Amino acid sequence: MSTFKQLRLMITIELAARGRDDLPIWSSYIVGVSARSSVEGRMSSETKSTPTKFGVALFPGFQALDVFGPLDALNNLSDSTPLEFIVLAATLDPVNTKVNGPGRIGQSIVPTHTFDNCPEDLEVLLVPGGFGARDSAILTPVAEFVKRIFPKLQYLLTVCTGSAIVARSGILDGKRATSNKRSWEWATAQGPAVHWVRQARWVVDGNIWTSSGVSAGIDLMFAFIADRYGEGVAKQLADRAEYVRNTDSSSDPLALQVTKECGEQVYERDSFLSCSTTPWGVGIRETSHKWALSILSAGSFRT
């Protein structure tokens, strides 16, 4: 017998004991609330989906750990949960992590599908970041694909500046999201209508999950697994990987560190832009391929 039927029966028995056979108006309210709670609880349980069809959207110059960190968690999850995983790109040519310029190495992944023949039943799409996203010719096809496929997805996950790519599509307008803190100014400029959350390891808004930079994607994926498949499953997978999870989405010390670092650091050219508004003095000198950034006390510069 359901909870609300039991409650109604109890009220009826109590009234009968008092010599009454009518149910007061307030009893209908209680029964109604109980019924709604029962139905809502059942619906919540039934609608908590456990997706099995995952995919990643790649582009030249994607960040390796943005993809392989979350993917390793899914690989291990697939030992106990049947999963499918596809690799999407503009063409079927191997996609390399290397961006243009000397002094970098890279690895390639061979796509299984193109953006034009993505399976209709894809449930979860992962969008990584990377320096390749700074090239509009590379970014635009990915953003257009995400915009086209999003209505069919159950969940959209982004890592690092992958949120900047998605922001360019307009999908994040009016939603909360986060991104790589060292590329904050560039990333947030891609979506002026987005409610960007700086102090966050990851952010969830509806069916969209966005993470901070690079390694934060691992925490995001474990949080996603915990939410969809259970905390016990996520903990077991993290322990298996000997990974110490950050389970607090608002714990993001790097958001403050970026604006408080002292001493000389070397950043990629684009990363400098996100540090240019710090309250400390910033001196730069251009080397062959990078900017050497000296962050000193306020008002002090060194070149």
TrEMBL record:
<dbReference type="Pfam" id="PF01965">
    <property type="entry name" value="DJ-1_PfpI"/>
</dbReference>
<feature type="domain" description="DJ-1/PfpI">
    <location>
        <begin position="56"/>
        <end position="225"/>
    </location>
</feature>
<protein>
    <recommendedName>
        <fullName>DJ-1/PfpI domain-containing protein</fullName>
    </recommendedName>
</protein>
<dbReference type="InterPro" id="IPR002818">
    <property type="entry name" value="DJ-1/PfpI"/>
</dbReference>
<dbReference type="InterPro" id="IPR029062">
    <property type="entry name" value="Class_I_gatase-like"/>
</dbReference>
<dbReference type="InterPro" id="IPR052158">
    <property type="entry name" value="INH-QAR"/>
</dbReference>
